[in-house]
Amino acid sequence: MTITVAGGGRAAAAGASCGEPSSRVPQPCAPSYEPVPLVFERLARDEQLRRSRAFLDTMATRRSCRFFSREPVPRELVIDAVRAAGTAPSGANQQPWTFVVVESRATKEAIREAAEREERDFYERGPAAWRDVLAPLGTDAVKAHITDAPYVIVVFARSHELVTDPLTKVVSVAKNYYVRESVGIACGLLLASLTHAGLATLPHTPSPMGFLAKLLGRPDNERAELLVPVGLPSEGATVPRHALEKKALDEILVWR
Ligand SMILES: Cc1cc2nc3c(=O)[nH]c(=O)nc-3n(C[C@H](O)[C@H](O)[C@H](O)COP(=O)(O)O)c2cc1C
Q1: Residues 72-99: pLDDT tens digits?
Q2: Which of 18, 36, 61, 196 has the fewest CB atoms below 10 angstroms from its CB?
Q3: Per-residue pLDDT reduced to its tens digit, 105-148
Q4: Closest residue (by CA) to atom 19 of ligand 1?
Q5: Ligand 1: residue whose CA is nearest its atom 23
Q6: What kind and span of H or E run contains 180?
Q7: CATH T-level assignment (fold) for domain 64-159+176-235
Q8: Closest ligand 1 atom number to CA of residue 246
């Protein structure tokens, strides 16, 4: 396989070739600009406020849940949440993400085993300052939520794409831009959608997460950013009081 570093992106991936067939080197290829009408629903003021408050009320109920019931939940809710995440803005619309939804018991067990191995190491030898800030959360190296939750979504960030020129078959590397920012926004939408659908979630980052790409058979251009168990809370689930303490509005909002 011949790999060159060049532009490329979605148009090339979709089959357009911007290179000279005879040159054997694909040229940077940008989709051409084509304006289409903006679809935008203009709401009445009171409707805007009603929706804004309803969304805020729902989001205020979101808690990172570490105790899951094994009760199944509809796949459609997870699919819709991934769809919602996929609407996220991204640098140059490159959409540098993949969402792997794990439902296989055996795979969840393998993830838990590997995550607990990493976490044991962290809780025994990790930086004391980092362990201190985690103390009020009451977390430890046992990660039963990974096997109890009906689904575990692993969000991967794609650093680049491999684009094959359909004519020359030369493969080029097309870098993705603002990958972490874009994936962070998509993760926010994913969590918001799942919360809105009445599901419990936990953004979880067993560190380091390199084992996830290997275990889930992901390609070299993908790196795990977040692991999200999804489901319903177990009977009697608790959350740390510390997590309820959010900064006041005047600490986070500045008008100029
Ligand atoms: C990027 C990120 C990584 C996180 N990693 C973990 C984790 O590995 N384990 C865990 O128990 N919670 C994890 N959390 C959850 C936070 O501890 C939690 O969001 C915080 O305590 C506030 O609680 P809340 O989510 O209920 O508001 C993570 C959250 C974020 C945003």
Answers
A1: 999 999 999 999 999 999 999 999 999 9
A2: 36
A3: 999 999 999 999 999 998 999 999 999 999 999 999 999 999 99
A4: 64
A5: 243
A6: helix 179-196
A7: NADH Oxidase (3.40.109)
A8: 27
